Every structure is written in structure tokens, then in C-alpha cells.
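Supplementary Methods S3. Complex input for the WQD-bound model.
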Amino acid sequence: MGKTTLITGGAGYIGSHTTLALINAGQQVLVLDNLCNSCRESLTRLERLTLTRVDFIEGDIRNTKLLDDIFSRYDIDAVMHFSGLKSVEESVRKPLDYYANNVVGTLNLCHAMARYEVFKLVFSSSATVYGAPRQIPIIEDLGTGKPISPYGRTKLMTEELLADLCLSDPRWSIALLRYFNPIGAHESGQIGENPNGRPNNLLPCLTQVAMGRVPELTVFGSDYPTVDGTCVRDYVHVVDLADGHLKALQALQSRNGIHAWNLGTGNGYSVLQIIRAFEDITGISIPFKFAPRRAGDIAECWSNPTKAGRDLGWYAQRDLVRMIQDTWRWQLRNPHGYHAQSDLLAPVALKQRV
Ligand code: NAD
Ligand code: WQD
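Predicted complex, serialized as C-alpha cells:
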């Protein structure tokens, strides 16, 4: 068996799209996931799409014995590290879970990598490490800020931990990929975002309304100093993100040390612009009401992705229309996500625009 890339969290939303990209690029992969926010079906879909068996171990990155076992059995030469908890709101209620999973989990993983002399790591970071940005569009070189939530602090702490690791031993090559707002799904409609429980992010909330499960969308804040009073974000297609991971891994072959890259489109859209675009593209009406600002939201945030373009040759290829079309195709083909049916959810009744 050739050199293998270990993909932690490879059954999840961004991890599954990246696993697909790696397999399509002819690479050997091993997915490690405890399925706390995903299910085996996403990997079965990948197997169908690629006509390849996906090596999978169900387990937790906090299990040091398991990590030892994996690194001793497989010829791993790089790790893509997606696993972690990602809800801002939940992190406020359960900070210990977030620090234990995201920070201690990464610490365990790095220990195991060092023990087995695997020094290439691509880490899922987030624009949240910039906190309230001092300047927009955001460039990497201006440095990080003060993240607003425990979730954000786990990402910043992990970045700092990884930077210290690189200082301690020049053999490490680490990419910090700072995603902006990932949306969309693979064009096949076979894999996509499948959040457990009630979603918090805009697109999953919006599709719940479009599917008729929730009567209206709540728009948080109408008085921000933005184009129309609602918050502006840099939405980026998950397949473009996957491609960014592939390019970052290639870049690590020839550079040591730690490197932060923004993965965003460089364009900002307001919440109202997203609603209108969704309505235009799908023909479905999205009733909404305004509510007070959501705690912790910043008015505007979008990337300057020039550094990723220069260093990696990565540019987001897919525009907002494509992001919404692909999100909607995934949703329509999988009204209950990866589950064939669910009696927890109300039946689907699409609201055609009148
Ligand atoms: P996701 O929840 O779909 O995927 C994470 C995967 O990790 C899940 O399959 C989950 O089961 C697994 N996992 C969690 N804890 C684990 C553990 N201890 N051991 C093994 N597996 C574990 O999330 P995603 O949207 O694909 O995000 C992937 C990464 O990107 C996360 O680290 C997230 O913080 C980061 N990120 C996500 C976004 C976003 O908006 N989706 C934005 C920026 C950064
Ligand atoms: C976008 C905009 C909301 C839901 C979060 C994390 C960030 C990163 C990506 C992981 C905001 C508004 C939302 C709704 C709304 N994740 N909104 N009604 O907050 O930019 O980023 O996900 O790293 O760290 O913070 O994304 O999709 O939650 O919100 O009006 O029902 O949509 O207020 O302005 P956010 P989001």
C-alpha cells in the first residue's frame, strides 16, 4: 500500500468533500471519525461516487491507544485534521467539551504524529480567529484578533499550539486553512451538509424554511452599518474548499514551517441578498422576520484570498448561484439528509412562489 493521508473527521461535511477530492486525485486515504456529527452513509456515498473502497476507522482522536495503533499499522505521511466540534452557540454552554475535543484532541494527534515522525498537517481553522476584524477584506498578515466564542478560542489556541510546534522542530510543515462561510454541496447531490439537531447557520436554516419545516426565517439584526442593515459574509463553496486542501497538501511537500491561508471568495453578501438570490434561483418564497442582533455576530467579514492564489494557485471557482443551486439539489434529493426517512421531521411541503 502507498503513502496514506489520514483524514480525521472525514465523514463530516467538509471532510467528506475533501476525501472525495483526494480519492479523485489518486491518493490513498484513511478516514478516522467518531461519527458524533456524521454517519457512515456519507462514506458509502463516496464509495459509490468513486467506485473505490474508503478505508474507515470509527474512533476518537482523544483515544491515544487507537492513534498509536493507526500510525503503527498504516504508512501515513500526512494528516488532514477536520475533526472537532463546531457550534458557536453550543460552545458557550459546553466549553469543556469544546476545549477537550478541539484543543486536547489536536494535542493528542500531534503527539502521535511526532512519535511516528509524520510532520505534515493541514488544519481546519476558521475566519473566527480574526475576531472583530480591524480591516476588511481580511488579510492573513495583519494577525489574528480576539475570537468572540469558546469555539473561536479553541481554533486560535490550536493555531498557537501548532505555531509553537513548528518553532520547536523544523521538520513540521503545517497549513492553517482559515475558512470563511462554507456552503454548497457536491454537484452530484450525493454528499452535503447534514447537521445533527437544529441548525444555526444561515443556509441550513434557510433550506428548512424552503422545505416547509419551519414557517419563517429569523433574520438577526436589521440595523448593522452594511449595505442593507443585515450582516455580510464571504460564502465559499465546499468543493472549492476541498480543492484548497489538495493544493495546500501539495504546497507542504516543498515548504516547512507554519502557513496561514484564507479560503474565501473575496466577495461579501448580506443576509437579505442571500434570501433574494435563493428565491430567484429556486423560485421558492422565503418568508422572514427581523429579530434583534444575535450575540457575537460581527457586521461584516470577507476575505482577501490573494495569498492562497499566490502561494497555492487556489481561487474559488464557484459563484453564489452555483453555491445555492448545489445546496438546493442536495436538499431536494436528500430531504432527510443521509437518513432514508425520519419520523422526527415534518413532511416536506415546498412553498412555491405565488
Ligand atoms: P462536521 O461536524 O460536519 O465534521 C466534523 C467531523 O468530525 C464529524 O464527522 C464528527 O463526527 C467528527 N468528530 C468530531 N469530534 C471527533 C473526535 N473527537 N474524534 C473523531 N472524530 C470526531 O463539521 P465541518 O463543517 O465539516 O467542519 C470541519 C472542520 O472545519 C471543523 O474543525 C470545523 O471547526 C472547521 N470549520 C468549519 C466551518 C463551517 O462553517 N462548517 C467553518 C470554519 C471551520
Ligand atoms: C451568517 C449570517 C447571522 C441564521 C459561523 C461561525 C464561524 C464559522 C462559520 C466555523 C449572520 C445570519 C443566521 C439565521 C440569520 N464556523 N443568520 N438567521 O456566524 O458568520 O459563522 O459559521 O468555524 O466560526 O461563527 O455564520 O451562517 O451562522 O450566520 O439571520 O437563522 O446569517 O446572524 O449574520 P457565521 P452563520
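The domain at 202-233+267-301+318-345 is CATH 3.90.25.10 (UDP-galactose 4-epimerase; domain 1). The chain has two domains: 4-184+235-263, 202-233+267-301+318-345.
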